[in-house]
Amino acid sequence: MRKVSAAAIHLFLIMASVVSLFPFVWMLIGMTNSSSDIVKGKFSFGSELSTNINKLLDMTDLGGAFWNSAVIAVIGTVCTLILSSMAGFGFEIYRTKGKDRLFGILMLSMMMPFAAVMVPLFRMFSSMGMLNTPTAVILPTITTAFMIFFFMQNTKSFPRELLQAGRVDGLGEWRLFTHVYMPTMKPTYAAAAIITFMNYWNSFLWPLIALQTPDKKTLPLIVSSLASSYNPDYGMIMVAIVITTLPTVLIFFLLQKQFVQGMLGSVK
Amino acid sequence: MKKLLSVLLLVSMTASLLAACGSSKSSDSGQSGTGNEGGSASKKVVAWAWDPSFNGAALKIAEELYAKENPGFELEVVDMAKTDLEQKLNTNLASGVKEGLPDIILVNDPNIQKYVTAYPGTFADFTDKVDYSQFSPYKVDALTIDGKVYGVPFDIGVTGMFYRSDYLEQAGFKAEDLENITWDEYIEIGKVVKEKTGKYMSTINPNDEALTSILLQSGGSWYITPDNKGNFVDNPVMTETLRVYKAIADSGIAKPVTGWSEFVGSFNAGDVATVVSGVWQISSIMDAKDQSGKWRVAPIPRLNVEGAVNASNEGGSSWFVLEGSANKDLAIDFLAKTIGGSSEFYERFLKENGGVGSYIPSFSSEAYSQTPEFFGGQAIYTDFTKWSTEVPGISLGMYTQEAKDALKNELPNILNGSDLTQSLANIQKLFEQQVQ
């Protein structure tokens, strides 16, 4: 009985991984084929890789877009981690009046669709003269209710005794945060970093609106404009998508161990 | 590893901060053409378009022609996806922020009325700037709102029935058998083709309304009336369109596809005998180099209703100038003298990018009478331009997209055999709910 169910579970897992890995394999195969081979459904490696890469480099400022994306994602992630973890720490550790109510309001903000705030946000950034800068892309999501919640939940398992011990040893609150809390919570930071990096790296709608000149475009904007031409060159698009996907995959594998730990709860 | 990462982070942060500081300056100069305060000395205009190898390339040809007479003229084309362009334009217009808007913008024909009506005073009036009698009437109709003409007509999507002559010959049909037929005859031919060659006659995509749009316009009708009401109930052309649509699906001559790439793949792989589509489809058909010489084009089949013709349109776009642009006059002059009145422009646009316009004086040119080997030496562009003068002019109205969405919602039910009168009433109701 047990053997049967184990086999069934394995079968299910194998099928699930095939389904989720297929797009990646398809993407890698696609980047080596010509556009018409791809629409015909050819499923083997071809010899068009260098042609596709050259066409892509010819048509777009790929390096520039990569740099723009990296600037936004890296600075955005670092700022988000610092601010959200401070907020999560504060919400969980300190007892203050009205904390729950404040947190409730914060959670409510998660319900607001971004499309609803886009026009006012656009006006705001325009009046501040900040449109068309990486800052304009980073600021609106520099902390999110979800990230604060994520840190708060993980802080629940953080041993208060450590804080008390630190206070007895004469550490100030700031140093407690940076020297005791932050090192202990590494897995949480890693998990949060992956999620935030991915969000910034893939963000589309707001960068589309806030960035105005071609030299400021991020990678997703480039991919979107390539894919929309009347006669799309799928081989070239596949190369662009692979390049766009790589950094998130890399970061995930770098932080994989911590990510899993972070998702299970930071402190064992 | 950790140290390396943190050093990398630090370096990229400082560098990007510097880049961000420098960028505010460069963006100011980059937008000199788009700003809305003075600066009339500038000879640079900025345009938004959505396909660098098609409409972006067309602008480059126009720039070259214009710069010959006007030295120092400069054009910057910003390309982005069509839906992205619309999103950006809508956000800018809805928020009243002019910063970042271009001088020239490409608009999809079904969106023209919506923009001009929803944002009055935003687009420049072209009425006396271009000789519109030189363009196909149906194209000018799309640009005319309340007696004023906005923008310059650009590419058209006059339709044809592309077909594989080898498959049809195998099934026993000659070119004459495909000239000026009705859709019912088309289906009969399709059955024979399917039986004798095993190939499908066409594709059908229940999530796409391209075919119904083509059928409707060929009957001189549209999803909405000129005063923007739903045109589904008590519209004989609509009823006939959906009857034909269902008949094609039921007859088994159509290969079901779910998306654009599957559609293109079906004819690139040689699975179908005909493709009813806009003239711009030529480039994807010619992608299958191994099928050279096997393709021909015939007029599309006709609906069985009063006034229906063997010609229609799928897609097309036009150029607009923003009223608030600092370089409005320059931008108008540029468009009017090139895309709005130069035969040379259209000849080059066809030769270099395969784009077909509706500028009548260019139709007699050598470029339009070429006989590509791929189509067995047929003078396809001469044929297409002839058909383009037969396309019934219709008002695309303000809510084409909403009406198409309402129809798409009901198409699967129609294909499953629900009562057509009831379905049309449902579509009309859904449409009215959407535009309220």
Automatic annotation (TrEMBL), chain A:
Name its cellular compartments. Answer: Cell membrane
GO CC aspect terms: plasma membrane
Q: Where are the transmembrane segments?
A: 7-29, 65-90, 102-122, 134-152, 189-209, 234-255
Q: One of this protein's GO BP terms? A: transmembrane transport
The UniProt keywords, alphabetically, are: Cell membrane, Membrane, Transmembrane, Transmembrane helix, Transport
Membrane topology annotation:
Multi-pass membrane protein
Q: Which InterPro entries match?
A: MetI-like, MetI-like_sf
A Pfam family recorded for this sequence = BPD_transp_1
Q: Which stretches are annotated as coiled coil? A: none
Please name the CDD domains in this protein's record.
TM_PBP2
Major location (coarse): membrane
Q: Where is the ABC transmembrane type-1 domain?
A: 66-255
Into which family does the record put it? Belongs to the binding-protein-dependent transport system permease family.
Q: What is this protein called?
A: Lactose ABC transporter permease
- Species of provenance: Paenibacillus ihbetae
Automatic annotation (TrEMBL), chain B:
Point out the signal peptide segment: 1-19
InterPro entries attached here? Bact_solute-bd_prot1, SBP
Q: Which domain of life is it from?
A: Bacteria
Pfam family of the protein (one): SBP_bac_8
Assigned keywords, A-Z: Signal
* SUPFAM superfamilies listed in its UniProt record: Periplasmic binding protein-like II (SSF53850)
Q: Which PANTHER family match?
A: ARABINOSE-BINDING PROTEIN-RELATED (PTHR43649), SUGAR BINDING SECRETED PROTEIN (PTHR43649:SF32)
Q: What is this protein called?
A: ABC transporter substrate-binding protein
